[in-house]
Amino acid sequence: MQLTLLDWLVFCSYFFILGLLAWWVNQQKSKNSSDYFLAANSMPAWLVAISVLATSQSAATFLGGPDMGFRGNLTYLASSFGAILAAWFVIKWLIPRYYQLKVTTVYELLEQRFSASAKNHAGQMYLFGRVFASGARLYMAALAVSMLLFNHINASGIVAAVALLAVIGLLCTMMGGIRSVIYTDALQCFVYVSAALLVLFYLYSSLDLPWQQVVEALRYPPEQARSKLLLFDFHLDFSSAGVFNVWSALTGFVLLNIAAFGLDQDMTQRVLTCKTPAKGAQALLSSVLLVIPVMLVFIVIGFLLYLFYQRPDLAAGTQVLQDSFQGEKITVFMYYVLNELPSGLRGLVVVGVIAAALSTITSGLNSMASVLVADLYQPWRLRRQPATEAKHFVRAGQCAMLLTAIALSLMAILCFYWQQYSDMPLLAFALSVMVFSYSGLLGVFFTALFTRRGNRYSVTAALCVGFVTCLVLQPYVLKQLSPNLAALDLGFTWQLCIATLLAFLTCYSGSAQQTTSAHAKEA
Fold first, then answer.
1. Fewer beta carbons under 10 A from the terminal one: N or C of the chain?
2. pTM
């Protein structure tokens, strides 16, 4: 498969528009680190909502969403109810506190409640998890870009694709900071949603089936025991296969989304760019509601791909699915793009994959840079040189962004080699890896919000307990601990529940009196 002249025209047009937008946004120079990382609290709620939506939808969603629909049903959408509950929690308990304290990063709340070391350790835990998660997502996007642009997925193609995506992400955001991220996110969201909708319409028209027959075929799939239109699964299943049931949506997914919306600098930073807490809350809730129809589009694409490849009795053009490319497993969506899409539309899908990847990369670069500068570098610098001018920290933010781009690129390249020797699906790794960081952060923040206990020592211990608990509960670790535990397959949402509880109890075990003395020593 080679891209045609029309594909390249679509490809170049996208980058021309992206470059113009980045140039226009970067005309507004940042005066200080708060302006660079929070856009002086001047961003409109509707634009922030689209930016949060774009950040939550990565290349993993673009490629994995259709695969979910192809192999499963609608139960993934049930997790949206957990997201709505989580958004309510964040709006009520966290956003007002962040605005009241006028924080640049969410971990500054821990400094006010516990100590500077608690803030630093929480920020470091976030950075550790974000490098793994964003690096894996960058690799998945590079895999698709390498297939589509270079027609191979060997090491040289992956490295070139990673470098291309990282450089574009830097050019879009390095000068303008979070303001550039939000505006370019809006463009990326429009592009990849438009690409998905066009693929959906093209695929449906190629099936040439009435809608009623499509619904009937999905309701009663011959080789599956359950309907593909099943939305609420009330079967209690603690394994990875049952991670999208109702009970998981109302427990683990609530915790996962509280962490994503309220404790993960990657998403929360956007909400803090609004003028008031009410506007920030409006942006967050709007983005959560917008995720539902967007995710539904990708799942329905998977449903139609199921009919296209698995139901020869319905679709005349059905072909045998060979979901591999040069011996490497790929998603059903990528297989369809490589083999079936016409010129022009194929180029738009390439752009859609890049747009979905860039929305994740640019947000990761800015949020990780904000933690490096605001939480780690700036306090250290001001202790040694109190007269440091504000512009210095803008330049520090740009340097930090360059460092994070290098770190994410190295992680993405490492994933290429890691996948050659690991049996764990990369998509599952990318979706669940933040649980390692989230569990400790949730335990610490719950202690800070709802109790008067805890200190800097118990905070550090809780972050470690959360991480270690999630690590021990991984099947490949359990297998090493004992052959009898090898069959224990606990879904990542339940791992998060257990690890968060243990982290909370660990943090709560620290006495508040020690916190006071710790503050006195630090002062």
1. C
2. 0.88
